[in-house]
Amino acid sequence: MLVAGVDEAGRGPVIGPMVLAAVMIEDGDEETLAEAGVRDSKLVPPGERRRLAALIRELAVDWRVEVIPARTVDSFASSGGLNRLEAEVAARLLSSLRPAPETAVVDAPERKPGRFSRLLAARVRIPRLLTVAEADRRYPVVSAASILAKEEREARVADLRERLGDFGSGYPHDPKTIEFLRRVLSSGEVPPEVRRSWLTVSRVRRELGLDSLEGYL
């Protein structure tokens, strides 16, 4: 039986893309992934993550990664549709896997995944489709997807730092990220990789006394 897992990386940062990945394996290979150390990507150091990503790509029957630019994240988030965006991309990834999986487990972005489950089920037809909170901690195939998503996002963020300078982690709690936002907002030259719909941006604008942000979305 073929089983697929889907997870995202980069939903929360104020800078950079969000990335979703799907990994499909034979169900008997979940134990192989677990024994190799595959787990939630947040628990995996960068060097080990690169090694595991290579192993996952080699073991997988098929896999897919989709990078969602910050502007696209903004356009959905500003209308309260970030879960809809995630469901659309997850469905697209699952539909592109060949051959089609018989079971799929998708990491849910909320603890009560009922609404997200309905969004996803309306967009993809798989015999057994599960949406599970914290699935990246419970299902090795979802952990594998989280590693591929994280590896791709980190590569994209590294490229951004080359172009934009060191903006820290890109997460709202990072003082270096906040300082970067203050600088670009003050200059009026806000890179498209900054998520303008984030409350963090609104807060920094208020602190700077800025009433508007040109080209908000």
Give the termini separation: 44 Å
Quaternary structure classification: single chain
Reported for the largest beta sheet, the result is: 5 strands, mixed
Structural class: alpha/beta
So what's the CATH class of the largest domain? Alpha Beta
Structural Rg: 18 Å
Low-confidence stretches: none
Please tell me the CATH architecture of the largest domain by its name: 2-Layer Sandwich
Number of strands: 5
Listing every helix as H and every strand as E from the N terminus to the C terminus, the arrangement reads: EEHHEHHEHEHHHH
State the helicity in percent bands.
40-55%
Strand line-up across the major sheet: 3-2-1-4-5
**Count of the domains:** 2
Task: Quickly count the helices.
Answer: 9
CATH superfamily of the largest domain: Ribonuclease H-like superfamily/Ribonuclease H
Q: Can you give the mean pLDDT?
A: 94
Instruction: Output the CATH topology of the largest domain.
Output: Nucleotidyltransferase, domain 5
Compact description:
With 217 residues, this protein is of the alpha/beta class. The chain has helices at 30-36, 46-59, 70-77, 82-96, 114-121, 135-138, 140-164, 175-187, 199-208, and strands at residues 2-9, 18-26, 62-68, 103-108, 128-133. Helix 5 links the parallel strand 4 and strand 5 (128-133).
